[in-house]
Amino acid sequence: MTSLAIGRALAVATVGLPTSVRARVLARIGGTIGEAARAATRDPAASSSADRARWAAAVRMPVPPGMRAVHPSWIEARLATLPPQARGAMVGQGHDRGSVWLARWACAGLATELPAELDLDGDGITRWLLDVGADQLAVAARAAGADLLAAIARRYPQLAPALERIARGRDVLVDRVVDERRLLVIGARCTAPHLVDPFHRRALALRLPRAVGVVVDDVWRAHAGEPRDGVPAWVALAPS
Q1: Are residues 161 and 177 in the same domain?
Q2: How do residues 20-46 score in pLDDT, each as one tens digit?
Q3: Is the domain of 47 the same as that of 75?
Q4: In terms of residue numbers, what domain contains 152?
Q5: Domain check: are 72 and 147 in the same one?
Q6: Within the chain, how many helices (H) and strands (E) appear?
Q7: Which residue in 25, 29, 43, 147 has its CB near the most CB atoms, within 10 A?
Q8: How many structural domains comprise the chain?
Q9: Hey, what long-range contacts does 117-120 have (CB within 8 A, 24 or more apart)?
Q10: CA 95 → CA 66, 88, 223, distances in Å?
Q11: Same domain, yes or no: 89 and 167
């Protein structure tokens, strides 16, 4: 069960309360669940009875909606810490209380929902961050000047052809001037100040293979609160 799903369910449960009372009740809920509950009251979908019913139903399901978007490596890592029965519970085998509890435990914290602008699959997120990282590396290399590029080429002769292309423009990604992981880190570092919602950052990371997602998520969390004037504007970074 995700904090987002629980928070939305709490927002639904308090719909009948007077506005001031509802605000005080939700203000007393701490952590990410409280943040999700308060955010849900501001969500335009909260005015729709159908959406509220969907939010309420989500907390009763053993496996939350949208888990297909999570990369299997995250689920496998979670299942490795649980009894074998949990694997069957994840695919609907067993509806007893123990199986439901195991399925929910396996899914706990695996947030999945994203706004339309960021609703990419794992490959799409990877391409996006690689593109952002490559753009920033090319800009930095060009700004450094020809002398530095020449010095890098002397030290790393295998990079000389790609560095020549950098001097003319952006063509970093095709030839992998640096390995993909470094480009992903650069991309994550540049986008972090714009990704202020922790649920969105987590959901994006969960769609990547776990080994990569952990690294990217760490970078996002480390730099999420930094000023945006130190990175390009979101209009230049947003997925196209």
Answers
A1: yes
A2: 898 899 898 888 788 888 888 887 766
A3: no
A4: 116-237
A5: no
A6: 15, 0
A7: 29
A8: 3
A9: 117/238, 117/239, 118/200, 118/204, 118/239, 120/204, 120/207, 120/239
A10: 20, 10, 42
A11: no
